[in-house]
Fold:
Amino acid sequence: MTHRLPQRLPTPPRSGRSRPRIGAVQYLNTRPLVHGLAGFGVSLCYDLPSRLADRLAGGELDVALIPSIELFRGEQYRVVSDACIGCRGPVMSVKLFFRTAPERVQSLAVDEGSRTSAALARILLAERFGIHPAVEVLPIGAGLAHTSADAVLLIGDRALGMPAGAASFQVIWDLGDEWCRWTGLPFVFAVWAARADLDAAAIEPLLARARDAGRSNLAAIAAAEAAGHGLTVPQCLSYLRDNLHYELGAGEREALSLFYALAAKLTLAPADLDLTASLSTAPLAR
Structure:
């Protein structure tokens, strides 16, 4: 089988200050979005999803792949690309492990790196069962055995496959699948965003082309990344190709609006936010 080589990405115009500073997540699911991006006129750094939002807000980054929940926590961000990380069914890398029946959960441990998934877990429990568990933070590197909470949320590479100790849990939810079956909509975990005061017009084409190049080379990415993530190459390719969706289309925008409304209902986001302003600057998926 042959694979198209990555397209050469146009170099953005240089500002008088420095190269555009772009932050991404060092998870397997981001590889198709940043394929080849580091070598084309930008400064690319990696951090946890939660920390990227903080660094973007603090001015350390110009553009970052931030958790979608961060779009709802003020009007300081706007979406600058139709490239995103989403799903239209099972996502595999965001899982909620239950020691008891979901409707009996009283305590919830959430992965320290998570913000969107933590909000999603709380929304699903509240909307479907009317429960509001006490929440604790599970430190980075901690596993299922490091907490006695009734439900434990793991995200990213740690959630792929069957983590140590998972067999002792009664129920396991794939949160992407739970949302999609419950709402009939896709789900968006992360978006490329910039501060509202930044002109990111030169960066947007880079992000879209990097995404397109990555999708054209999923087999090559899987071959390079599988072993390091404890997966076979076919498993890795299936995850990247079949479980993840990389375009912010009309359905994804509708899903973000619903996610915002439900988050605001639980006071996980401010009420009366004009989400249209944040989303209107991002081009529709082609």
In short: The chain has a mean pLDDT of 87. The CA atoms of residues 14 and 239 lie 36 Å apart. Residues 250-265 form the longest helix (16 residues).
